[in-house]
Design goal:
Elements: E1 10-15, H1 20-35, E2 40-44, E3 54-55, H2 56-74, E4 89-90, H3 93-105, H4 110-123, H5 134-137, H6 145-152, H7 155-170, E5 178-183, E6 186-192, H8 197-211
Parallel strand pairs: 1-2
Antiparallel strand pairs: 1-5, 3-4, 5-6
């Protein structure tokens, strides 16, 4: 375990539950959380929310190609049957809103819930764009299901999700995953895009040795 003498350090992870490279990055984030005593704040970047959503028929082949690439590089599991939903809209607004709701209700569980949504979508072919899937996805988390479901479909939390998207843009996180380290002097870019754990750890350890 590597610790820090600076109490104000914070990792800021910008991703989207329906971003395949973010799913590939999930084990890296798990190692990161175990290796450093630095909190990780999750910001939803908004891959294809609302007006940017697309019918699956328009992007199915492109997504399948990316999924194969991510599986090959990261070893993460994918169930390609999730891409065979005819008439389905690839809209990431609701799962991003769900992450923001979890952050509101139980911030320490946000990253775990983010990964739960990823696993549901990519490996279990659960439609995370469907509100009816969420009671099942909340199993094992400490939040009240009824309250969560009420917030999930509220205009207040939809606006909060779009505030996350705006924050991501303000951090120049236009591609996902993006990992930043916030300290008193400002933000340091750790990575823009997927990187395996070992080179990420080595670069971070060296940076901390030099800078902190």
């Amino acid at each position: 375990m590597t610790t820090s003498t600076e109490t104000d350090l914070e990792f800021v992870y910008v991703g989207d539950p329906m971003c395949s490279w973010c799913w590939g990055f999930a084990p890296v984030l798990e190692h990161l959380s175990e290796h450093y005593e630095i909190p990780v704040r999750v910001v939803c970047g908004g891959l294809r929310p609302g007006p940017s959503a697309e019918p699956i028929e328009n992007i199915r082949d492109s997504l399948a190609h990316h999924w194969h690439q991510v599986a090959e590089r990261s070893g993460q599991p994918f169930d390609h049957a999730a891409l065979e939903r005819d008439g389905w809209i690839y809209d990431t607004e609701l799962p991003c809103t769900a992450v923001v709701v979890m952050r509101r209700m139980s911030e320490p569980e946000t990253l775990e819930f983010f990964v739960r949504l990823q696993r549901a979508f990519y490996a279990e072919k659960i439609d995370v764009t469907d509100p009816e899937a969420y009671p099942q996805l909340l199993e094992g988390f400490s939040v009240d299901t009824s309250e969560f479901m009420e917030l999930l479909t509220s205009e207040e939390m939809k606006r909060a999700a779009w505030e996350d998207f705006a924050e991501a843009r303000s951090l120049s996180a236009t591609g996902f995953p993006t990992l930043l380290l916030r300290r008193s002097a400002g933000y340091v870019v750790v990575t823009r895009g997927y990187i395996p754990w070992e080179p990420l750890r080595d670069a971070l350890d060296q940076w901390m040795q030099d800078e902190l």
